[in-house]
Fold this sequence. Notes:
Blueprint: E1 4-16, E2 22-30, E3 33-40, E4 47-54, E5 62-69, E6 80-81, E7 91-97, E8 100-104, H1 106-110, E9 146-149, E10 152-164, E11 169-173, E12 183-187
Antiparallel strand pairs: 1-2, 1-12, 2-11, 3-4, 3-6, 4-5, 7-10, 7-12, 8-9, 10-11
Amino acid sequence: MQKFLIGKKIGMSRIFDEAGKVTPITLIEMGELEVTKAEKDEKTGKTLVSIKGKKNPTDKKFINRIVTLDTDKEYKKGDKITIEIFSDSENVDTTSISKGKGFAGTIKRHHFHRGPVSHGSHNVRQPGSIGSMFPQRVIKGRKMPGHLGAGRVTIKSLKVVEIDKDKNILVVKGCVPGVRNALVEVKG
């Protein structure tokens, strides 16, 4: 990882090119991070950086992280990391907490097929058999109904379409996990 910044997901939209082709985009309002500690690891040659920053400009909550940057740039205490580290047409990885969907059945959660609905069948949305006679228990890892979503998700290689340095907004092609105003980690 060479570049790291934290922002807030504004939402999704779309843009049109000259031929009228639609491209889905996500707008991310990027924050500003301050380096609190930076040290070079002699074994790997990578820079370990401790950072702090706000979730967004109006928030009072601070973010504290320790990230490992594989870069030639020398960071020192007090340096600011801003949106200017990214460039157009660059690929970035985005990480956030996905939308929580609560308790879900096997059809929604694991994409099981439903059963027959005709001729008196009562096995329409049930999961079916969950095990055999031996070992007389449900095997660990069996796909069953349960909690869906609200997990850490990373979408890799999203292309940066535009950077608005005045408004501090990063525009990426495609979708970014999470709800509006969710915290998003952007790595380059």
